[in-house]
Design brief:
This protein is an alpha+beta fold. The protein has 8 helices and 6 strands. Helix content is 54%, strand content 8%. The strands form 2 sheets. A 4-stranded antiparallel beta sheet has the order 3-4-6-5. It binds zinc ion (ZN). Zinc ion (ZN) binds next to strand 4.
């Protein structure tokens, strides 16, 4: 009996031991498999991160190339646009005119437009202005009105013919010297350009030196540059007699520069002025 018991115990022990051995063997295989999976995952991660890195690099290179190309393209477009602007711009519009250098009698602005009567002092007369300058003039007068002053137009574009008639007429009325001083050479070409206006106001309707005592003149002196207009012949200028009513459009960028520096248009070098031709009608 005792013997049988021992045999059973031995058999059970053997079974248990063999189970343990088998289990360990399986565990070993399993852990080996897990290890190899882990390795695979690791290498997969490396591949993934590598390709992400490469993709990022490629993407940034491509973006850089695209950026550079579109920048070059933009520069080229700007150059073409500037050339186009320059080809279409009229160099006469920013020239300094004198008794020696004046506009050709055949010159006329590319396009003129009728000034709405709302901006004219004597509404029976029709006035025209360079079509590109008109919006600057009307917005200047609109803003002036909003601030309680009302400069109004008493003269604008004058063709060579009109100018010649006016000169003869004045000569008859006032005599040659006075006529020359008032209408003839002074501001002559600037009116023929179509970019220049003579301004007055209801309280002082004719061209008068005393226009500079009006609040309209004070307003223009402080604000006209914001609309691209400057006084061509200010007090004390060495070119011509003082004309507080005569305002010429030279564009906001140049007018602003002159206002900041306290310089007059006719005191500038022509080469310096010409740089502003391209931006003359910029707002
Ligand atoms: Zn004038």
């Amino acid at each position: 009996m005792q013997k049988t018991k021992i045999i059973i115990i031995v058999i059970i022990s053997l079974i248990i031991i063999s189970y343990v051995i088998i289990a360990e063997y399986r565990l070993n295989i399993l852990s080996k498999k897990i290890f190899s999976y882990e390795e695979s995952i690791k290498s997969l991660n490396t591949i993934t991160s590598l390709s992400k890195e490469s993709f990022d690099n490629l993407y940034s290179t491509l973006s850089r190339v695209i950026d550079e190309e579109s920048k070059k393209n933009k520069e080229l477009q700007d150059k073409v646009m500037n050339l186009d602007k320059l080809a279409k711009s009229d160099p006469e519009l920013l020239k300094k005119y004198s008794k020696v250098y004046f506009l050709n009698e055949n010159y006329s602005p590319i396009s003129t437009e009728k000034i709405p009567t709302d901006y004219i002092l004597n509404t029976n007369i029709e006035y025209k202005l360079h079509a590109n300058v008109l919006p600057f003039l009307t917005s200047m007068i609109d803003d002036a009105r909003r601030e309680g002053v009302e400069p109004l137009i008493v003269s604008a574009y004058r063709s060579f013919g009109t100018q010649a008639d006016l000169k003869t007429q004045k000569r008859v009325t006032y005599g040659a010297n006075t006529a020359n001083r008032f209408v003839a050479e002074q501001g002559y070409s600037e009116h023929q350009l179509g970019t220049t206006v003579d301004l007055a106001t209801k309280s002082m309707p004719s061209l008068s030196y005393r226009f500079d005592t009006t609040k309209e003149f004070e307003w223009l002196k402080n604000n006209a540059y914001k609309y691209g207009f400057v006084l061509s012949y200010p007090k004390g200028n060495s070119y011509y007699a003082y004309e507080p009513w005569h305002w010429r459009f030279i564009g906001i960028p140049l007018a602003t520069q002159l206002h900041q520096d306290g310089i007059y248009f006719y005191n500038l070098d022509q080469k310096f002025i010409d740089q502003y031709l391209l931006t003359m009608f910029d707002k």
